[in-house]
Design goal:
Length: 257
């Protein structure tokens, strides 16, 4: 497939998507939205892929929605088009997604990072929801996912002032999984995704589904959901292999069934 705003590569069992609009700090225009969603859903359906990585450049993961493209938008059209709706498909990916974030992750860029499952930040990463400075609010879940990630106190601070927070603050607040030196970012993200991709695929997909259930249900229902999936995994060959490998003091070799 020919993409103009992203680079797409398969590295082993990992699908890598690199945002590539350097002239606009990877601002998320409509074409980039369509391309990221197409590439990510393609990897999600591909059985040779076990996990995804989404990254940007050294300077910017993404500096938000493309302000120049959206400034002329009008209500009836964005409403009828359900503009930005396609981004929701990233939240429905079943395979684990690692965000590798260096530099600016602002507005839609921060929201895109939060749509991923493991967020690895370079020490240069800067996060923020500056939409309020443009007279709008976040549009792909920023006010919701940021608040779930860092709590009301910090979410209100960030969203209402539009200020940026650095990697250290973001990790302390619970937005970021790990911080790594900028030079190691992609290597670490790919290694992490490769580790996940080497797990039993049914277990990894159920793991993700189970963690995400936290945000949709009560504790009792969530525990029940987890228990059902846990029981179901005893129907897989990979459970037998994983436990036999432990008992035999060897590495497991999963076949994703
Ligand atoms: C369009 C953008 C852009 C954006 C940067 N550029 N961000 N173009 N949309 N969001 C362009 C600049 O116009 C400039 O183009 C080039 O990228 C380099 O940016 P500079 O501003 O010159 O770089 P710098 O001085 O280093 O400042 C970096 C920055 C700043 C602090 C990140 O660019 C900035 O504040 N950007 C906007 C951030 C923002 O408000 N994001 C939220 C958008 S609203 P030229 O042609 O002049 O060289 C949003 C809504 C969410 O995301 C809805 C869901 C998607």
């Amino acid at each position: 497939t020919e993409y103009q705003t992203i680079l797409v590569e398969q590295k082993g069992r990992v699908g890598l998507i690199t945002l590539n609009r350097p002239e606009a700090l990877n601002a998320l225009n409509n074409q980039l939205m369509r391309e990221v969603v197409a590439a990510a859903t393609g990897f999600d359906r591909d059985p040779s892929i076990g996990a995804l990585v989404i990254t940007g450049s050294e300077k910017a993961f993404a500096a938000g929605a493309d302000i120049k493209e959206m400034q002329g938008n009008a209500f009836p059209q964005v409403y009828l088009d359900d503009w930005l709706g396609p981004w929701d498909e990233l939240g429905r990916l079943r395979k684990p997604v690692v965000a590798a974030v260096a530099g600016f992750a602002l507005g839609g860029g921060c929201e895109l990072a939060m749509l991923c499952d493991i967020l690895i930040a370079a020490d240069t990463a800067k996060f923020g929801q500056p939409e309020i400075k443009l007279g709008v609010i976040p549009g792909i879940g920023g006010s919701q996912r940021l608040t779930r990630a860092v709590g009301k106190a910090k979410a209100m601070d960030l969203c209402l002032t539009g200020r940026m927070m650095g990697a250290e603050e973001a990790e302390r607040a619970g937005l970021v999984s790990r911080i790594v030196p900028a030079a190691d970012l992609l290597t670490e993200a790919l290694a992490t995704a490769e580790t996940v991709a080497a797990m039993s695929a049914p277990a990894a997909v159920m793991m993700k589904e189970s963690v995400n259930r936290v945000f949709e249900t009560t504790l009792a229902e969530g525990v029940r959901f987890e228990r059902r999936l846990f029981h179901a995994l005893f129907a897989t060959a990979d459970q037998k292999e994983g436990m036999a490998a432990f008992a035999e003091k060897r590495k497991p070799s999963f076949e994703n069934r």
